[in-house]
Structure formats: structure tokens, C-alpha cells
Amino acid sequence: MLGRGSKKFSAFCAFGAISFAIACGGSSGGGSSENNLAAGEEPTLENVLKTNALIAFAAYQDSLITAQALQSALQVLVSNPSEATLAAAKNAWLTAREPYGQTEVYRFREGPIDQLQENGGGEGSINAWPLNEARIDYVMEVDGESGAGIPVSGISSNIIADTAAFPSITPQMLRDLNELDGDEGNVFSGYHAIEFLLWGQDLNADGTSGLAGRDNTPGHRSYTDYLPEDAGCTNGHCTRRGEYLLAAVQALIEDLSAVVAQWDPNTGPHYASFTAGGDASLTLILEGMGRLSFGELAGERINIALVTNSQEDEHSCFSDNTHRDILLNAKGVQNSFLGNYVRADNSVVSGAGIDDYLVAQGLGANAENLRAALQATADNMGRIDSRAKSGVPFDNQIQDGPTEPNITAAINSLIAQTQSIENVINALGLTAGELDQDTEEFQL
Question: Which of 124, 138, 276, 334 is at 20 to 30 A from 243, Cα to Cα?
């Protein structure tokens, strides 16, 4: 499945420690907004669009910068495998997910991340999930099944082991294989392919399947999977595994670079057209906020995993980082509303937000209602995040099923948040697509 993300910010809301509560930012009650505009800036539609576009550029640029740092860590791992270099690579992956998670709000709005997907790049190549990991590398058999499922044309076992069909592993080859045979589970590139190659399957600590009952650990891949074949390599094809890892991160960097170029405020064609788009661009912002909140986040990324108790359907199932994925996706919606983004270097991109614009249009009540809905989501996501950090990861939390209070509350607050976004769209007299078009799990 592709993708099935006080108005003054303090340093405590900085990258790597994002608390995602409007209490870290946001406005006071009463339907008014604390001024966060640049000197001399008015909350005009043009300024709202400019702020949104500058935040998009910054968030994608941070994603690229952290992906390049990830590439450096992976190169060190492949050239010098050890427990320390594997741990450093995992930390680099986790760091890279922080800014990217906040960019998911720029999907569903005919932007570069969606447009580039038509040519084999974009979101489908960067962040597609869940993936059929048995087509990438070895997996443990579960109940006598390899996990490979229906045979895939051209792949006799998995890419890393199949040297005859794939004598060399390149970034473009991985992109070309995505959705092979029309199966969205055939994902070979992006963050989650790299995640699998770093953590491996999320089995219990003793190596048994977690289907009957999961422990609180992520995957346990050993650094020895990257040692030379004649010096302790485990599970075979260690050189090929390293080649795959480096090809995947190179593909990720190339795809992110293409998106960044489109949003560049000096030369980016999409930046120019979007900021000149008037009400049409504002509609796209709000529609993207709503569709991410409802169908993608509440539905695909949370509800499906919850109701099916499916570890495979959680977003970052190998690393147990799903609690950060869903929090950061929701944080991206907040960023668009408030017109604020804290960069990876702790600097802030800030300007006219939708909340400012609503107040200027005499719609302060709508601004306050959406602000309250975002705060409810923030509170619920924070509880899931805190529980995961205390040792109960998302895949353990969903084992309680639909009675699990924090996750159920997060879903309900996202539904309410989407309704508030739809109310804003109607109050502004805009015409947007249906916000519930991305899931059949529930309806607005």
C-alpha cells in the first residue's frame, strides 16, 4: 500500500524532541490568535501560501539532509560492520524519519510528492508500506510458510539471494520493481526497505514468531549479516546485502532531491505555481490536511492495524517506531495550521498560518474550534508516544484491540479534527474533494 503521514515555539519543541502539543505553541482561547507574523507581514492569502510553501521546502530539505547523514552511516556500516556501526546506522534512520514524517501533509494535493510517483519516484518510492520483505532478503518461516506468498515474476527467491536474475543492484532497478505484478506489497525501495535491512523481522527476543504474543523488542538483525563472506557472514550474501542497502539509500536521496528541487523558493517550478494559486492552493492545503487526518492516518495507519491486531500493518513494524510516525504525521497538520516548523538545526520557519487568516476573515470561532481539535489529537498522540517510550511499543498497544483507550481516542480525535477542517473549508466558501475518499473503514 503506497503510504498506507503560544505561536512562538520554544527550544523544547525542537527536532528530535518534538512534544507535539499546541501548548508548545498555539494561541490562547477566545477566537483570537497571538501574532506570529514576520515584521510588517499581514495574514493575507498570499502570505499564508508563501509560509506553507517555505515550510514544505524546509521540511523536505531537512529530510534530504538527514537522508544524506543516513547514507554516510550506512557506508560506514557496510565498510566496517560492528555492533557500534549498526547501532549508529539505526539511530541515523530514526533521526531521518523525524522531518519526513512531518511532510506527509503535502500529499493528496497534486504536489511533487504525488506527481513524481507517476514516473516511478515520489511517495511510492520513498515511503511505501507495508512491504513483502521476503522478496528482499531472508525471513523466518512462520507456521511452515516462508512469508513469500504468491510468486513474483522474475524473482525466484529474494533479490539479495537471486544473483542470476539480479547480477547488480541499482537504485533505478529497485524503483522499477516497485509494485511488480501490480502488487502494492512489492516494495523494494524507500525508508522501510532500509528499515528492514537494518532491523530485520520484528520477532521476539528468542527468535520466535510474535504472532501468538509479542514482546516489546524490535527486530534483532545482527551486524554479522554485513561481515565479509569469509569472515563471519551470517545468513549468506552479506556483500549483496550491503550493496542493496547502499542502492536503496541512494534511491531515497535521489527521490528526495527531486522533491526539494520542485519546492525551492528561488528556482522551484511548483513553488512558483503554488504560491500564485490563490484560493485553489488554499483548498489544496486544507484538503491535504483533511485527507491525511482521516483516511490515511486515522484509517490506514492506525485503525486497520488496531482492528486486525496486525503487526505487519503498522507503519514502522521492524524498528517499532510507529508511535513516532503517527505523531509526526499529525504534527505536520498542525504545522500547516499554525504556520510554524522547527527545523533539524532548531531554527524556525514561521509566518502567516491558516489560523491567522481565519481570524482576519472574521472566522475566529472556526480557528478556535480547529485549534481545540488539534490539541485533542496532540494529547492523544502524546499518550501513545509516551507509552511506547516507557516500553510498550505500538504493536503491543494494539493487542488490546478497539478497547485500547489511547489509540481509540486518537482515532476519534482525528475524525473530529477532519470535521473541523471540513467546516473551515465550508466557512471559507471553498470547494474541495471528499476528505473521506481514502478509506472504507469509517465515514465522516
Answer: 124
